């Protein structure tokens, strides 16, 4: 296989794998009333309480419009609350009691899915994959 074909196959496989993983997360989160994008935010906020909305978007690499839409849905579900910070333009995101109660159930579902997907990969395999993917991301970001 020529390098161009190999590179195309690699990028296509990464894309397909991420989409399949996300679909699986959506399936395990469905009984909890969540989507994968909401799980990502719930997980982040559970570990970084009262965090600025813009910083959540940056950390998760989500565009402003997409994070606003996800947060609005989560707010409607009663999972998060947005409060103004000293800078009135900035909103800080915190979990509500309902969000804190849902988090361990969602974390368990996500953990089970992740374990099933990564089953059979050694710790060294996972570390090497992480290193490769991080290296790719660093080049995308120009680091």
From TrEMBL:
Keyword list, A-Z: DNA-binding, Transcription, Transcription regulation
Domain HTH marR-type: 7-138
A single GO molecular function term of this UniProt record: DNA binding
Superkingdom of origin organism: Bacteria
Gene3D superfamilies: Winged helix-like DNA-binding domain superfamily/Winged helix DNA-binding domain (1.10.10.10)
Pfam families hit by this protein: MarR_2
Designated name of the protein: MarR family transcriptional regulator
